[in-house]
Amino acid sequence: MVTASLVKELREKTGAGMMECKKALEATQSNIDAAIDWLREKGISKAAKKANRIAAEGIAAIKIDGNKAAIIEVNSETDFVAKNEEFKSLVDEILNAIINNDVKTNDDVLECNTNDGIVKDLIIAKTAKIGEKLSLRRFTKVEKSDNESFGDYIHMGGKIAVLTVISNANSEVAKNVAMHAAAMRPAYVNSSEVPADVLDKEKAIMREQLRNEGKSEDRIDQILVGKIKKYYEEVCLENQIYVKAENKETVAQYVANNGGTINTMIRYEVGEGMEKREENFAEEVAKQIQGQQ
Questions:
Q1: Whole-structure pTM value
Q2: Contact between residue 45 and residue 14 where contact means Cβ atoms under 8 Å apart
Q3: What are the pLDDT digits (tens) for 113-155?
Q4: CATH code at position 100
Q5: Distance of alpha carbon 19 from alpha carbon 25, whole angstroms
Q6: Any idea what the CATH number is for the domain that residue 40 is in?
């Protein structure tokens, strides 16, 4: 008889998904050692060996369904796999799970049911099949009201994804703002979103730079006003000059001229802030071939 404790033990030993472990135990009359061999023969237990590998490539993607939308980053080890249809179908499955469930954390998403099992098991199974570590890095789920519009933009086949929510303006305006954000990399919608500790750090750096330039202390505070304004123009979406503008209008002015205001901007760039693989895919293949000789 296949018990829950046996399934748990097999999962811990192999890293395989719950359903794969159950099938393995059923096929081997609940013999753990035989089940491990069964999983190895199927190539499923390989997923556990990839847990410590670096996955900093992948896809950023968006799904919009009525007044709900989700933006996601799912990682792989190589850009080659990120273009694989198996990988793309996994991303779609996870997006559907986010849209259709009340989820707040990655752990919530991993426990969601799909037509092919829970998300966690799907990732493990795909990891084994594709041969690379795959992981859900982050997601944001957004709901809007009827007087708001979603704007979505995917750049370079999923290297960058931007989702915006604009009040009282149409989806074309919202999409234009998303395209701008993809190109100009704002970190915040407006200056009020900049955390106090981040701003204090920037001010401290600016002060030290001015001191090193020989500026007197009584002048530094005056100069800082202009420098902070320039900082906001660089990092805040509303303060940036709109990329399509012919008259130097800001993004906030562009949206306002179309009757709207910016509520939300989420920008995902694949692998940002992550450690990158130092060895390339060709080198890894060569190592694998040498290891088989």
A1: 0.77
A2: yes
A3: 998 889 999 998 888 888 888 999 999 999 999 999 999 999 9
A4: 3.30.479.20
A5: 10
A6: 1.10.8.10
